[in-house]
Amino acid sequence: MCAGPAGAMVEGITGSRLSPMVEQPYAPPTNLSGVADIYRRMTVPIHIDGQGPFAFVVDTGANQSVVSEELAAKLRLPLDASALLNGVAGAQMAPTTIAALGIGGRTKLGAVLSILPAAAIGGAGMLGLDQLEGERLTLDFRDQTLSVEHGGRPWRDPDDITVKAHRRNGQLTLVDADLAGVPIIAFLDSGAQNTIGNLALRNLALARHPTSSRMETLILSATGQTISAQMADLPHLRVGGMGLPNWPVAFADLHTFTMWDLTNKPAILIGVDILTRFESVCLDFARDEVRFRLPKAQVERTFHS
Description:
23 strands, twelve-stranded mixed sheet, six-stranded mixed beta barrel, mainly beta
């Protein structure tokens, strides 16, 4: 079952590179347009029943992997029983199929994939948490590469900030996140372009900054439903040891938060817009930890809260 917004386009596999980049300090994108560009680039090549590769979004906010109905039809994948698919705005029944997935040189047999339109998932398919168990996922925003590696003890950069995390419905829950010193529950959602907080977090933020400007918007779920949201700047957010500048965040009463029983506790789904503040982010599902690497320029300026 998919939990969380789908739709991030990210490219690459272990050690691969989209295009050569000039050696220079990493500078995070300054606006959402720059974030969207990185978001569209970062996918991972997946083989299905020996065919491909096909560009799949990697969505750490989804518990269920998905293939587009267009690709399923092209590959003549057999239809299996429909199953409940949870999205950020609601749940619906979706057809499924069973296939062999080739990920990073390894083949996973009998993978169950839900089927959705390509327009809803932003690509040929979506790789969710059900296929990331025991893997190490690294989003390198500096070089715009994405790598999926299996197990093993990784080499650790001494400059990385390592945060132990625990699981909640299969997802890595950050324990090192707070808003103005108040601890909050934070999930990393690589499949979401924008960060989304629950209403309890919105109330906490507005209580500290009641004059913050707000704007109404809509959030579209991969399952096709929409939900209204309110955009507002979120000041004094700290994630992975780094204090972040004011950044526009959507606040909504998501189905995801209800499903996780997080309607009364401040919680946030951290999307690619905030993840790009770091030079790289590694989600290690084998070791239950997350490693953040700050841009060197920020390390030199001691850009910590």
